[in-house]
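Handout, page 2. Input:
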Amino acid sequence: MYNTVLFDLDGTLTDPGQGITNSVAHALKKFGIEVEDKKELYKFIGPPLHDSFMKYYGFSDEEAEKAIVYYREYFRDIGIFENAVYDGIENLLKGIKASGRKIILATSKPEEFAVRILVHFGLDKYFDCMAGATMDTSRSKKGDVIAYALKESGCKAEDAVMIGDRLHDILGAKENGLDSIGVLFGYGDREELENAGADYIAETVEDIIKFI
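Output:
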């Protein structure tokens, strides 16, 4: 049905909950903010960090930039690997690759970090293109990342589908004329994904294959 399959990273290929929340908590502590229940920080998983610091903690643009620097202090060498591949993902990637289709990563995580994560887990070999955000956040919105991924890979939007767990994945796909699959094993819920306009909803990793 699709010649090209784009995947989000956090909450779609891997569960980064521990690493991201620990990194956000580290950054917030620099501003004198203590977080008792790190589950409160799950909302940081998926969207661009800059937007989340401003939205959830009322940071100014300058404060959000500083928070990202503090976040990366922890994430760069520790939080990045406080992460786990979801069960069934490697088999899914292997099957898509064997079918002759292209697999592309499209994540709002900085590309440098995203590539390190895929290499760490041995998943990089399945990807034809790995696209992410820039470190200076000039490219961080999911729609911009998807557009960049399509351009770099030479793939056409009408032949591709975007798979992700948050509304940003679905809206970014729509912005670029792609169909989308929202997954429920990540950090978004059915209401969020349906309201964003996901074309399909996959409850499990195994369900994805039915739609592609």
